[in-house]
Amino acid sequence: MIAVRALSKSFVTDRGRVDVLKDVDLDIAAGERVAIMGASGAGKTTLMHLLGGLDRPTSGSVSFAEKNLSRYSAQELDAFRNRSIGFVFQFHQLLPEFSALENVMMPALIGRCQVKEARGRASDILSAVGLEHRLDHKPGQLSGGEQQRVAIARSLIMSPKLLLADEPTGNLDSVTSDEILALLDRLHAERDLTIVVVTHSKKVADHMDRVVRMVDGRLEK
Questions:
Q1: pTM value surpassing 0.85
Q2: Which element (helix H / strand E) includes 124?
Q3: What is the CATH number of the domain that holds 187?
């Protein structure tokens, strides 16, 4: 599904050029679950942002189903992300003034679904993650685990093929982390998802099919 070739990313700072990724090659098969591990500053999150089209590489390429993301215009890339990739972050990034249902509806509305259809999809996916009794609650009325379930539901409302998760259990206690991992296991099986997770947690990595490690912007051989 994903082919990364000679991927590099540099940033220019007051102290000069910083090479964050250096000639990374990586293949991820459809339906595979991959954990990306490494020390802070190794380039894990930068790699995930490039995989998801949230940023563009300095050189090299990311191809999704043999389509090079760098060849999309900004508008085409926005549309591609909306329909093909779900994102889950350590900090849930839910809109505090909206209910769980309304938060989950957002990607569908951005994708130009009708309000009735978006509401139905959001209700169904929230039920699938065990929150059918929390539809009208705002994020501040939900526990950390419930907020992360809302974030996962939001990431899946457009039925993406790829789920990218950056430290999805990083702010959760061990019991809630186990619940989120079990939920991801179930959703992977039910929806044939490809999942890529950035994590420091061995427990999270053990739930994946494969672990790749980053050291100083390169994948460890």
A1: yes
A2: helix 115-128
A3: 3.40.50.300
